[in-house]
Amino acid sequence: MRAPHPDQRLLREQLETYRALLDLREHDIDRLHAESEAFLRLLDFLLSAGLIEAAREAIRERLQ
Fold first, then answer.
1. CA–CA distance, 23 with 36 (Å, rounded to integer)
2. pLDDT tens, 3-31?
3. Cβ atoms 54, 46 nearer than 8 A
């Protein structure tokens, strides 16, 4: 069995690297979406409970 051409090997390694980076990026996006959803639920709860100042403080902390 012949060894793969060096260029093919390099291309295969680059492709694996790009796939790994895309997987990480997808994971980060999923995490960001989940954090945003949780934050919006918290704001909804605070505002519906009439805790406007607490909601403002949560927004200030989130923006820092």
1. 20
2. 667 788 888 888 888 888 888 888 888 98
3. yes
Please report the DSSP string for 2-64 in residue order.
Answer: PPPPHHHHHHHHHHHHHHHHHHHHHHHHHHHHHHHHHHHHHHHHHHHTT-HHHHHHHHHHHH-
The b/e string for 8-41 (b: 16+ C-beta within 10 A; e otherwise) is: eeeeeeeeeeeeeeeeeeeeeeeeeeeeeeeeee
Total-model pTM: 0.62
**Type of residue at 11:** L
Collect all residues with Cβ–Cβ distance below 8 Å to 12 and sequence separation of at least 6.
Answer: 4
